Amino acid sequence: MRVIDLAVIVCYLIGITWFGARFRRTQKSLKDYFLGGRIAPWWAIGFSIVSAETSTLTIIGTPALAFQGNLGFLQVVLGYLLARILISVLFLPHYFRGEMYTAYELMKRRFGDRIRKLTAGSFLLLRALAEGVRVFAISIVVSIILGTGDLWSILIIVLLTLFYTFEGGMTAVIWTDVVQMFLYLAGALVSFFVILQSIEGGWGHVVQVASAAGKFQIFDFRFSLDPSFFTRSYSFWAGVIGGMFLTTASHGTEQLMVQRLLAAKTEGESRAALFGSWVVIFLQFTLFLLIGIMLFVYYQDHGLPPPALTDRIYPLFIWEKLPTGIAGLIMAAILAAAMSNLSAALNSLASTTVMDFYKPLVVARESQRQESHFLTVARVVTLFWGAVLMGIGVLAKQWGSVLEAGLGIASIVYGSLLGVFLLGLLTRRVRETAAMCGMTAGLAAMLYVKFATNIAFTWYVVIGTSITFVVGFVTSLFWDGRRETSNG
To answer: What value does the mean pLDDT take over residues 340-361?
Structure first.
């Protein structure tokens, strides 16, 4: 183990934990703890969205995709832009009518309390499972640095992140996100140039070798109605359509992202943060894919066998090949992305648990509790979810590629969430029972697609959304809507 590299990493971990915990003194209410008091500037929220959208899965999984394939993942990123347009037009105006803390309060307003609990519960399950994969991805990096096993690697990062999230709430999440985003992007740029200098012949040689291997191909316009068409993850159609549906679901219906949009001062600032984040996302995905291509050329030039777990290729190269000090900086940058995403997940899981389950139950049964009581409960629930994510992280080792496993798990639930939100926003006749039937059908269909077919994960949200919407709407034609009263 290299003392200087470890010193850089330890200093970072201590520094960011101290920085985040300092925001405790600003946490006096649930609005402060879950929405940062709605005083953060739009650009900080935009960077926070980037950090939440990135995670360790992006940093270690994206280079591995390019190492094995090409630049096809950028087709998905184009879908991300179309999704932001839809969210801006369709979702944001509803979220800024009145004061909301979670995305699922919109479902209560439109349908009723049962659908609110169903959508909120689906998010809790989805985010816990998907974040568990990300927690395991953290352990890959920490185990390379410290040589520790999965359990200890997970404990180190989760406990540190849990501490400042527990103390500083959403304010700590946003501002540590800003710091950590700049750190991991700086680390990626440094590693880009260091890897390039390690390749004889420089960029010209990279272009020559990678072009011959088809590494710079972005678009795959092949289209057919053959079943094999739906098994390709990164065709143009799967990428753009699937990426659009995936991001509309994640940024429009999932509390992890919606919480950031709700933290903006106004709807206009929320929209600016949303579109500004896409520019950074596009640039950083391109950067990480190019790093993967350069690693492909490096390994080919030196006749090296890739590691058994391809997700290890980027962090392993950094730790073993980069100069002392620089390796520590870049490893700290990867951990920065991990902690950023984990802190956001903890806060969003806590906000959904408290605002959509605990607070309505307590207020319904008793007189209004003091705000300090709910703030204490929010912190306790944050600790609870920290323990849950540790457990899932230990189990996630068996789930394959970390990037595709994370996106695949999320996509199972995203479809039904997006479908029921679209039923609420685009129709008037659909009532709560029909919406619940649609959501249940969507979830059941996606479990079948995931475990009984070879359909690519990029199609999951498209299929789940379509089934949820169609079943919900058709059910409403036969269900007497007069039995229920719309809350919209």
So the answer is: 88
Identify the pLDDT of residue 400.
52
Whether 54 and 199 have beta carbons less than 8 Å apart is answered as no
pLDDT at residue 75 greater than cutoff 60: yes
> What tokens appear for 240 in the block?
């753009």
What is the distance between the alpha carbons of residues 340 and 349, in angstroms, rounded to a whole number? Answer: 14
Classify residue 36 by its DSSP letter: G
CATH for the 3-399 domain, from 3.40.800.20, 2.30.30.240, 1.20.1250.20, 1.20.1730.10: 1.20.1730.10
Query: Count of H helices and E strands in the chain?
Result: 19, 0
Average pLDDT along the chain: 84
> Where on the phi/psi map is residue 169: left (φ > 0), alpha (ψ -120 to 50), or beta?
left
Q: What percent of the chain has pLDDT over 90?
A: 32
Q: How many CB atoms lie within 10 A of CB 303?
A: 6
- Nearest CA to 403 among 152, 66, 178, 9? 66
Burial category of 228 from C-beta neighbours within 10 Å (exposed 0-12, middle 13-18, buried 19 and up): exposed
Q: Which amino acid is at 210?
A: A
Q: At what angle do helices 113-146 and 326-353 cross, to 10 degrees?
A: 160
> What does pTM read for this prediction?
0.82
> Which amino acid is present at 444?
A
The domain spans of the chain are: 3-399
Give the residue from 41, 69, 468 showing the smallest Cα distance to 265.
41
Q: Of 157-166, 208-217, 378-387, 441-450, which gets the smallest average pLDDT?
A: 157-166
Q: CA-CA distance, 360 to 463, in Å (whole number)?
A: 33
Give Cβ neighbours of residue 415 (< 8 Å, ≥ 6 apart): 245, 249, 442, 446, 460, 461, 462, 463, 464, 465, 466, 467, 468
